[in-house]
Amino acid sequence: MPLLSLQTNIQLNTEQQQEFLLLASKTMAEILGKPESYVMVSVQANIAMSFAASTEACAYIEFKV
User: Fold this and answer.
1) Deepest of 36, 45, 53, 60, by most Cβ within 10 A of its Cβ?
2) Per the domain annotation, does 41 fall within a domain?
3) Cβ pair 58, 44 in contact under 8 A
4) Own/partner pairs for 18-23, CB < 8 Å, 24+ apart?
5) How many CB atoms lie under 10 A from the CB of residue 10?
6) Sorting pLDDT into bands at 50, 70 and 90, what band is 28?
């Protein structure tokens, strides 16, 4: 089962998270040529993270097939 996982320190409300989940699921299914029922997407927002010694907006995206 393909998995797209996003972690970010940006605060996203429930509507924004749902919008991302649905768009990412559809996009990944199209790219992979698989039905959407085979694709999993996860989003974790507003978590403590830094990049390059900065706490400015950042994200970590991981894709597993």
Assistant:
1) 45
2) yes
3) no
4) none
5) 13
6) very high
The verdict on residue 31 lying in a domain is yes
Domain membership of residue 39 as a residue range: 1-8+23-50
The distance of Cα 1 from the centroid of its chain, to the nearest Å, equals 15
Distances (CA, A) of 48 to 5, 20, 59, 62: 16, 20, 11, 17
Identify the CA nearest to 65 among candidates 5, 18, 21, 8.
5
Question: How much is the average pLDDT of 27-56?
Answer: 97
In a domain, 15, yes or no: no
* pLDDT value, residue 21: 98
Task: Examine residue 14 and state whether it is found in any structural domain, yes or no.
Answer: no
